[in-house]
Design goal:
The protein has 3 helices and 27 strands. The protein is mostly beta strands. Strands 4-27-26-25 form a 4-stranded antiparallel sheet, with no helix packed on it. The chain has a 4-stranded antiparallel sheet with strand order 5-6-7-8, with no helix packed on it.
Length: 358
């Protein structure tokens, strides 16, 4: 690209190179990629707090620029315009075990920049799967549920793990081993009768967490916003207004800021704006026969919903159904990795790693 063309595009400098560093010069030379701020490689990630653009090789160096744990949070750089594949491909079987049935929640453990560990909970135990060098997965059972308290929802960020359980009024924070000494109450509702259900870390507002609450006596639900220290700072919508959802069993925040609520009583997924206005319910029909379980989102703002009797529904940010995958496996839980790999747990104990974008 010539200097004259650069000037027409507003990128010319009239010969003035003062105040510009080497990285700026590289990025004005007409190449089709943005360069890492530390080297000549193409940018792969952007650190949200620093706004630094780094390649895959320099991620480790960038992590060492701050001593505070969890300071850096990486996202993929640039727009991803891949399409939903017409033929989703099973990359591999993570596990096939009859003892691992009825999984309630699945999440990625916080490894940057790409998680290689998955945490899974069902009515019997909590398990961690770790990717091995040869492509296989190892399994480690961490903790058996005690008494009638069963872990039902797990949410992870780049540095934290939260979970809710049946018959518990608290949201708990734990370490990666779910150890007794590493587990503590994180949040408890101030009003009696409200119990935590779904939890989700915010993708838009750092250090904010969404928590779904359900009152069995009133048969009503609420979703609140909590700071990283466990302090409630607001509601999704007005505190007292009637909500479209009843039991916010699972939550996910979309990249565009929408909050996705899987309601096991209303048998729908409700997608709301951050101020609480309902954007749309899914499915749109009133007579829904399938009960949704976990809900997840990807980098393209697609929403993925696990239906034990009807597969994984992939819808776009406006509620249009794009594709149904895993229709025959009775999926009970799903999550999406940073590379948009879909992990699906089925009712019969299978867990698969699926490529659904092409």
């Amino acid at each position: 690209m010539t200097t004259k063309t650069l000037k027409k595009l507003g990128l010319g400098n009239n010969g003035d190179t003062s105040g510009r560093n080497k990285a700026d010069d590289r990025n004005l030379q007409g190449q089709d990629i943005v360069r890492c701020y530390k080297c000549d490689e193409g940018v792969r990630f952007v650190c949200k707090p620093c706004e630094a653009k780094v390649c895959k090789r320099c991620v480790g160096d960038h992590l060492e620029t701050k001593t505070s744990p969890g300071f850096h949070r990486f996202a993929f750089y640039g727009k991803d315009d891949r399409m939903i594949s017409s033929n989703p491909n099973v990359e591999g079987i993570v596990d096939k075990d009859e003892n691992v049935k009825e999984v309630w929640s699945i999440a990625l453990l916080p490894d940057l920049p790409e998680s290689q560990r998955i945490i899974v909970c069902n009515d019997q135990s909590v398990m961690v799967y770790q990717k091995q060098g040869g492509g296989g997965w190892s399994k480690n059972e961490l903790k058996r549920n005690i008494g009638d308290s069963i872990i039902r929802c797990i949410a992870t960020s780049s540095s934290r793990i939260l979970y809710t359980a049946t018959n518990c009024k608290n949201v708990y924070e734990t370490d990666e081993y779910f150890s007794t000494e590493g587990t503590r109450p994180f949040f408890a509702p101030e009003t009696d009768g409200w119990n935590p259900r779904g939890i989700a870390f915010s993708l838009v507002t750092p250090d904010h967490i969404w928590i779904g609450l359900y009152n069995a006596k009133l048969k009503k639900g609420n979703v609140i916003k909590v700071e990283s220290n466990g302090t409630c700072v607001g509601y999704l919508g007005n505190e007292t207004e009637e909500k479209p959802y009843i039991n916010p069993r699972f939550l996910a925040e979309n990249k565009n800021g929408d909050i996705c609520i899987s309601d096991s009583v209303g048998k729908k997924v409700f997608v709301l704006e951050r101020k609480g206005a309902l954007r749309f319910p899914y499915p749109p029909s009133e007579n829904s026969t399938y009960v949704p379980r976990t809900v997840a989102t990807d980098r393209q703002c697609n929403i993925l919903i696990a239906y034990p009797r009807n597969g994984i529904h992939i819808i776009d940010k406006n509620g249009e159904l794009l594709r149904i995958v895993e229709e025959r496996t009775c999926p009970t839980a799903c999550c999406v990795s940073l590379k948009d790999l879909l992990f699906v747990c089925s009712k019969d104990g299978d867990m698969k790693e699926i490529t659904y974008l092409s």
